[in-house]
Design brief:
With 167 residues, the protein is an alpha+beta fold. The chain is built from 3 helices and 10 strands. Helix 1 packs across helix 3. It is globular and about 45 Å long.
C-alpha cells in the first residue's frame, strides 16, 4: 500500500506543475512565502494578474461532472471577495496514490504523472458553513496553459484593462 505524501510534498509538486505551465505560456509567476491572503501563486501577464490557491490530493472526491474539494471558509472568502484587484481561483492537482509514480525519468524528459483542474471563485456566494465549503471543479476545466489564458481573459474583463483613458 502506498504511503500518503506529506503536505509539503503535495505543495511542491503543485508548484512545479503550475511553474511548468506558466513558463510554457510565457507568464511571470510569483510564489508567496506567506499564505495570509489565500494565495499561493500569482500569475502575471503584462499588467494583468491572476491569483491561485493550490491544493493537491492523492484521493480526489469525484462528483458528477468533476471533482469536489473542501476548502476552508476563510480562504474561500478571500478568493471570492468582490474587492479583489486580481480574480481568485482554486487549482486542484491530482497525483497518483504512490509517490514513486509522481515523476518518471526518461533519457530526454521528465514526466509528471499528475493533472489539475481549476475553478474561479471570484464573486461566488458566501459559504453556508463556518469551517469548510465544497468547491466544484468541473472535469472540463483542466489546468492547462489555455486555462491560464482564460483566467487572464476574466482578469481583463474584471479590471476593464484596455479601457482606461487619460483625462
Amino acid at each position: 500500500m502506498a504511503a500518503e505524501a506529506t503536505s509539503w510534498q503535495k505543495e511542491q509538486v503543485s508548484r512545479a506543475y503550475v511553474h511548468a505551465l506558466a513558463t510554457q505560456g510565457g507568464y511571470t509567476i510569483c510564489d508567496w512565502n506567506v499564505d495570509k491572503d489565500g494565495v499561493d501563486v500569482t500569475l502575471r501577464s503584462g499588467g494583468l494578474m491572476v491569483d491561485i490557491q493550490l491544493k493537491c490530493t492523492q484521493k480526489p472526491r469525484c462528483v458528477r461532472g468533476g471533482f469536489s474539494f473542501d476548502l476552508d471558509v476563510e480562504t474561500y472568502n478571500k478568493l471570492r471577495a468582490p474587492d479583489r484587484s486580481a480574480p481568485g481561483h482554486l487549482a486542484l492537482l491530482i497525483v497518483p496514490p504512490d509517490i514513486d509514480r509522481w515523476v518518471t525519468y526518461q533519457p530526454d524528459s521528465i514526466i509528471l504523472a499528475c493533472h489539475g483542474y481549476w475553478a474561479s471563485l471570484q464573486g461566488l456566494e458566501a459559504a453556508t458553513s463556518s469551517v469548510t465549503t465544497a468547491v466544484h471543479l468541473p472535469e472540463h476545466q483542466l489546468l492547462t496553459v489555455n486555462a491560464m489564458s482564460i483566467m487572464f481573459d476574466a482578469a481583463r474583463r474584471m479590471t476593464g484593462a484596455g479601457s482606461w483613458g487619460v483625462n
